[in-house]
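**Protein of interest**
===
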Amino acid sequence: MGLIVDVFEARSDNYGYLAHDTATGRTAAIDAPEAGPIKNALLHRGWRLTDIFITHHHIDHVEAIPELKAEFGVTVSGPRAEADNIPGLDVLLDPGTTLALGETTFEIFATPGHTLGHIVFYNPAGGHLFSADALFSLGVGRMFEGTPGPMWEGLKVLRALPDATLVYPGHEYTASNAKFALSIDPDNAVLQTRAAEVHALRAAGRFTVPANLGIEKQANPFLRADDPVIARYYGLEGADPAEVFAAIRKGKDTF
């Protein structure tokens, strides 16, 4: 018994995920970017959608809620802090609480920055982290609503999870993230290896996720804002890591 995760493409560069509790058959879509790909994945697997778990309010993560809810009668759970901007929410989630999918339990963490109320879903038993736009492979989401300090603090919570954790981000941005990471940290051997792997995967038309969190801790510059190597690149030795994080984010925004 456990959790099976199905990964598929949606929209232009979104990842879609189905999380299936094998004990009970309950199946959740993690975010709702596009109805067609979600329904195709359900058909391929022979699963029935029972739940939708929402991470944040952006349209490319919630647009399919009304159609899926009307067709499947699902329960939609999402962040209380963004409830006014998310259609069809049934269960309002607060950071620090847990959410059950059959016999599978998810912990809810606050990851503000991309949006103020952004949350992520972590399944400790299976080591699955659905990070949406808070944490990408080799990157993080744009800081649309938040500020560097709280965003960095949220990422530190994710960084503290076990190295074996599997990271399921909201988008396929890994190749472009790798190019930026190498531009500021060119001598990082772990990053070099991961970038080569990403290049090979994309050339073969394959996904770059789930990502291994242990590798991300070593290769993702946004998780290393307190690393002197990254601070030195920006001339910020001894600075608050939140200031370094802000410099990395600004650098990526203009890369």
